[in-house]
Amino acid sequence: MTFRKILLAEDDADDQKLFCDFLSHRQDIVIMPVVENGEELLTVLENTTSQDLPHVIVLDQNMPKRNGLQTLAALKAEARFSHLPVVIYSTYADEELVSNSMAAGAALVIAKPISKKGYEEMIDAILNLLD
Description:
Blueprint: E1 4-9, H1 13-23, E2 29-31, H2 38-46, E3 56-60, H3 68-77, E4 86-90, H4 95-103, E5 108-111, H5 116-130
Parallel strand pairs: 1-2, 1-3, 3-4, 4-5
Helix pairs in contact: 2-3
């Protein structure tokens, strides 16, 4: 079975737990250690070998130090990371966030799920990006 590595940048402990708990049974994904902000994400990626990079990055829009859009811009500006699909997720995925994120190179913008079914659907949508 092929598995996909997902790196989550999320500052809220409850949202981190929901993300990891709801998806812990999935055999097709590996959730890399969660980072709490965009600066931490960039540091982790800079210290990761090319073969160990995530297949997809999920960024919370509202994080301290660097929000999702700022982090997305930094990722797309760095040749080593610019090819990685990035998903912006937020409590409110309004039209402005969707438009700005897509213009900046996001592969997907999605509202944070609130149920196990919602998380399953979100991960399926993310994995569909990789096929």
